Protein: TfoX/Sxy family protein
Organism: Pelomonas caseinilytica
Amino acid sequence: MPAPADPNDPAGLPNLGPKSREMLAAAGIAGIDELRRLGAVAAYARVKRADPRASLNLLWALEGALCGLHWRDVARERRTSLLLALEDHERPPIRR
């Protein structure tokens, strides 16, 4: 695959096809820099709020894109830790 013209274009990351990039853009995640800043879990949560049809495969793909792993390897090796991180991310803060 040729390198994208814009180095911040998510098309340059593995695991992210056109539909994944569309979902990221619809959630206001415009580029690789913002995706890295947010991390896979927060980015997935934002996409899921914008499009409830987003599946956990997107979470695996985002983590793989940021870590250089195939999404299936992420699903097999990091599933539990990512699901726990997602649960923590979505938990409302405790008010004291």
